[in-house]
Amino acid sequence: MASIGEVHSGDDLAAMLDAALAAFDDRPGDVLVVTQKIVSKAEGRFVDLAAVTPGPEALRIADITRKDARLVETVLAESTAVVRAAPHVLITRHRKGYVMANAGIDRSNLGSGSADRVLLLPEDADESADRLRGELATRFARQPAIVISDSFGRPWRHGVVCVAIGVSGLPSLVDKRGEHDRDGRLLEVTQIAMGDMIATAAGLATGEGAEGIPAALVRGLPPPGRSSPASALVRPIEEDLFR
């Protein structure tokens, strides 16, 4: 894909992506993976920390984590629970159910003049994916499935991988339970995190640092089948075995 340049609040992201895709025809099974950062930027999900007043709980957790209390206050506002607070570590359950560092709030690659700004996740990434897919279809006659990706750390593993936080036009979770393996054994627990697999594959192209590649077109997949949102990937809290 061609470069789309810096994305700002209020930008027409569908038009920018369509222009970057100009050299590509539209094929069945295409998946356009878009990083969360440019979706959040276009949606204006910025918070100016200078305008944030930390409360007592934020001050307490900031003392434990050694983080900016204003950032901690913003993290708490986006979260339903604190999972772990330790020096330089704050893991929370985001209001959409993701368990992640700092509720997904980020300070990197926000453009010039952003020293005191942070960027939140989209208000609802599945809705953002639906909207982007609809705009590409109706305005530009493009019909790729959409995955909005973000990078998560993983328990007991170093490093981050990309996961799907928004999906439209493909099954985010493929349920194999009730099918059989090659030996005829009944599959009882197998579910495939299709959205996450596609997001991580695209992450090899988009990168995690200064690459400046905010979207990737994934081709060669079978037709996507029945769509299901990324929210299907979030394990219900009652199934959390590690609380």
Report the radius of gyration as a whole number of Å.
Answer: 19 Å
Order of helices and strands: HEHEHHEEEEHEEEEHE
Unreliable stretches: none
Query: How widely separated are the two ends?
Result: 42 Å
Helix-strand category: alpha+beta
Residue-averaged pLDDT: 92
Overall shape: globular
Strand order of the largest sheet: 8-7-1-11
* Number of helical segments with 4 or more residues: 6
Q: Residue share in helices?
A: 25-40%
Q: State the major sheet.
A: 4 strands, mixed
What portion of residues belong to β-strands?
A: 15-25%
- Total DSSP E strands: 11
Outline of this structure?
With 243 residues, this protein is an alpha+beta fold.
Provide structural commentary.
It is globular, with a radius of gyration of 19 Å. The protein has helices at residues 13-20, 36-42, 56-65, 69-77, 125-140, 194-206, and strands at residues 31-35, 46-48, 79-86, 89-94, 99-101, 117-119, 145-154, 157-168, 174-175, 191-192, 215-218. The chain has 243 residues and is α+β, with helices and mostly antiparallel strands. The strands form four sheets. A four-stranded mixed β-sheet has the order 8-7-1-11. A three-stranded antiparallel β-sheet has the order 3-4-5, covered by helices on one side. Strands 2-6 form a two-stranded antiparallel sheet. The protein contains six helices and eleven strands.
